[in-house]
Write a structure and sequence with these properties.
The chain is mostly helical. It contains five helices and no strands.
């Protein structure tokens, strides 16, 4: 993910999340998060706030405090960008 290979990162995180890793679920959420992708200046990849929220929600349900914070950031982004996906 840090190297910019989001496709490979998603595959890795999906496998780890399927194995029960809430940290991987939160990381997978970041690969879809418009706030995170905007900060990284990712181009050519459409963010998906719904998918980000879904993965963050899974992580937060398992006690991941960072995922909780990212859900709040995502909610603020959605409020400021009501027409965005």
């Amino acid at each position: 993910f840090a190297q910019g290979d989001l496709a490979a990162a998603r595959l890795f995180y999906e496998m780890a999340a399927a194995g029960g890793s809430h940290a991987a679920a939160a990381a997978l959420g970041r690969t879809h998060d418009p706030v995170v992708l905007g900060r990284m200046r990712v181009r050519g990849l459409v963010p998906d706030a719904d998918k980000a929220a879904e993965w963050y929600g899974r992580a937060a349900a398992n006690g991941d405090a960072d995922a909780e914070a990212r859900l709040k950031d995502l909610a603020a982004w959605r409020a400021a960008n009501p027409r965005a996906r």
